[in-house]
Design goal:
Distance between the termini: 59 Å
Order of helices and strands: EHEHEHEHHEHEEEHEHHHHHHH
CATH topology of the largest domain: Rossmann fold
CATH class of the largest domain: Alpha Beta
Number of helices: 14
Number of domains: 2
Number of strands: 9
Shape: elongated
Strand order of the largest sheet: 3-2-1-4-5-6
Radius of gyration: 21 Å
Length: about 290
Amino acid sequence: MKRASVGLIGCGNIGGRIAAALLKSEYALTVYDVNTDAMNALVDAGARGASSPQEAASGNDVVITCVPTSKVVEDIVYGSGALVDALMPGQTLIDMTSALPESTRRIAKDLAERGVSMLDAPVTLSNGLSVMVGGPKHVFESRRPILEAIGDHVTWVGEAGAGNIAKLCQNIVTGMNVAIAGEIYAFAKKADVDMGRLEEALLTTGAADAARKFKAFASGNFDGSGQLLLHSKDLWYAMETAREIEATIPFTTLLHEVFRLSVYGGDRSWTQNGVVTYFEKAAGRGDSRS
């Protein structure tokens, strides 16, 4: 059976990992990114470069998008040089962006009317690379080999948008975990507790996961992939989805406000650990970087 060819649009942090995995599995890969340095690095590794999203899609069985937001996905699909006009019947679009479920469902419906299938398949790096997939089960099964080449764990969650719902649930929980760790860290510092001894004590309890973050908080080094900003975006997506389906998520709403204030009171490039600065400033202790 002929192996499917793949076009990848988005060669950033996650997109680069996806590309590397596909090349390792010897898939024919075409890549496109507005960042030519990121794209050229993958070309040097064996991919073929494209000059536009449409060229990346042309002639390939599967097209993967992996970009920061739903708006970027929509711009690629519907904007100037619309991908929706370049995709042909029989092709599959796999969107690996952490996206709004409602946006995903709308795009999937529009593509289905043109004979193009779609899967939403956002990823997380918290336990290897896990892929959570939404879309028709038969499409998932037909494209499973590509997804399994990319991810260490691949799970079909349900119909269109279900993959993104799963990713939002995961980000709510991981956001809560880092925020509560930041809160108790700042609280204990304000109480002048020896942080090393507190960490040692908590590591023997149900608070061990929070205590393991103390060293990262104490380092004051939150530079990284900008995940604090992207995580805040996903919490907003969860709130928008909750409003749409009339669900109540009060803790997520509060968490989003903490993340939002951490982003705009700090640095948009920080990892999630930068959330500790919100609690430290609120406690009047400055922050870990000062």
